[in-house]
Amino acid sequence: MSLCKIGLGLAALGRPDYINIRSEHAIDKSIDAFRANAFKVLDESHNLGIRDFDVAPSYGLGEQFLQDWNDSRKHNDVNLSTKFGYTYVANWELDFSDKHEIKEHSIAKLNEQWEISKALLPNLKIYQIHSATLDSGVLKNTDVLARLYELKQQHQLKIGISSSGIEQVKIIEVAQKINFDGVDLFDSYQVTFNIFEQSCFNILKELLAHNKTIIIKEALANGRVFKNTKFSEHEKAYCYLEKLSKKYSVGIDAIALRFIIDALEPTLVLSGAANTIQIKENLKALNFELDENEIKNLTLFRIAPEQYWQERSNLKWN
Fold it and tell me: Which residues contact 106 (CB under 8 A, 6 or more apart)?
């Protein structure tokens, strides 16, 4: 059986709006309600065996919630990861019409956000560049790269990148060549991979063979793995997912997560659960295994990265 674990990403827990397909029913979007819910989900996750928690400054108040939870619970068995490079600017304004987060991969932003993120030490284990891209120039910014290497040495951190978009493979190829004195800078790669977006499969298997930490995000394709009439081109996938869901008596979410565990065998797959019901359902993925035929059939539902990322860019923040 795969040694892959499920972790919890806080993107949907720390801010009132998120790029996801959410249910239509209204929820309390006050800061107090979100804090209470975040603590409830974090507690339940830990009770259920989750030990890896991922956050970022752009996840609204997610980093603050995680720090407050971590400080109050005093668990000594958790592994925390955070990032630098995006700033949350919606300021908890509901139905914010502009960009909710702004990217800046400068040395100034790294130092600014590190000053806050370092409060997660000593449970902070992985520090990442948030959505590294070729366009931002961050993988050629010697000041940023040297500073990350310094933090790696000083705090025994794993340094990582998270990636998104149609150039994920190219980004990873550039990142894996960066080293200081023969030591790879990047130990961890947080990558989008799921039933529809499988473009990184080969390079991720290569990284795993070199003992790199592989963290999978957006495992449920921002909710697109669930049957949706807006995505009629995925109808065959929806029918097959429903068939497997009935066979294994689990939700579509567990099938989608299990596909990643069985097909790729990454280090960690992040749940993006927004409540305790979802985290319980997600963890059912650990209770069964797909057979070779089922894995093969699910791989056939991959689509071109260009189509995948265009679909994603069309999703609304809600």
Answer: 141, 144
Per-residue pLDDT 10s for the chain (318 aa) are 567 899 999 999 998 876 554 555 567 888 899 999 999 999 999 999 999 999 999 898 999 999 999 999 999 999 999 999 988 766 666 665 556 578 899 999 999 999 999 999 999 999 999 999 999 899 999 999 999 999 999 999 999 999 989 999 999 999 999 999 999 999 999 999 999 999 999 999 999 999 999 999 999 999 999 998 888 889 999 999 999 999 999 999 999 999 999 999 999 999 999 999 999 999 999 999 999 999 999 999 999 999 999 998 887 654
What is the model's pTM? Answer: 0.94
Q: Where are the domains of the chain?
A: 5-313
Q: Sign of the C-alpha dihedral, residues 46, 48, 50, 55?
A: negative
Give the CATH number of domain 5-313: 3.20.20.100
